[in-house]
Amino acid sequence: MQFDYELAPQLGERATIGLIALQSDETVEHDMRRMLPLEGVATYVSRVPSGAEVTNDSLAEMEGNLTGAARLFPLPATFDVVGYGCTSGTSVIGAEVVAGMVKKGCETNAVTDPLTALIAACGRLGVRRIAVLSPYVAEVNTALIAAMERAGLEVGLLGSFNEEREEFAARIAPKSIAAAAEALAKEGIFDALFLSCTNLRTLDVIDGIEAATGLPVLSSNQVLGWHMMQLAGVDPLARFGRLMR
């Protein structure tokens, strides 16, 4: 028995967004589903191969796999924005290269990443001098700081957990992140704190760090989610720290 049917429009009456997460990332997809409004917004996630250890070489290797990861989104879908979920990877590969590789693999109006999103968020908040907390080793941090400074930010201080293994970076306890961030804030005069890395569990400590330090606190996943919604033309329903105040 055969039935006739009608075709419905693409899901996502408000927006359609995509996220390319690292294979090794345990946090960013979970955080995005907590932050982003679900009603009327279709969200699709793909994964890109990534190394178990985070070095500039392993980050650079992702460039060649970004287009393939974007091609794994549903083929008929057209996106308002696609986010690439790697702060340090963007600093090594370059935001323009990332955007070009993603656009080769899917149809999207915009591409962003945590570094591009951070620059946009700092512009919104009037942030110039920033302290950075990273989980990673010196060579990765050096590339990140250089990219931030090329974008016009002044990195006044860097703190790090000096962890090379991605699986351990993903499991750093939020209370350890908060303690380190609050210690950094006491070491100088800054406009904001930045918690770098999409694998860090930052969302639940942002408000507490802001209360303890009196500074705006930005994290990779927070700014990425905020910027994706901005580019998609959707007012976020979730609160993004001071970005929504």
Description:
The chain has 245 residues and is an alpha/beta fold. It has 2 domains: 15-113 and 223-244, Rossmann fold, CATH 3.40.50.12500; 115-219, Rossmann fold. The chain is 40% helix and 19% strand. The chain has a 4-stranded parallel sheet with strand order 2-1-4-6, with helices on both faces. Strands 8-7-9-10 form a 4-stranded parallel sheet, sandwiched between helices. Helix 4 crosses helix 7, helix 6 (114-125) packs across helix 11 and helix 9 (174-185) runs parallel beside helix 10. 50% of the residues are buried.
Secondary-structure-based class equals alpha/beta
Low-confidence region ranges = none
User: Which fold name is given in CATH as the topology of the largest domain?
Assistant: Rossmann fold
Structure annotation, total helices: 11
* Domains, number: 2
Overall morphology: globular
Calculate the terminal CA-CA distance, rounded to whole Å.
57 Å
Share of residues in helices: 40-55%
Radius of gyration: 18 Å
Question: Strand arrangement, largest sheet?
Answer: 2-1-4-6
Q: Order of SSEs, N→C? A: EHEHHEEHHEEHEHEHHEHEH
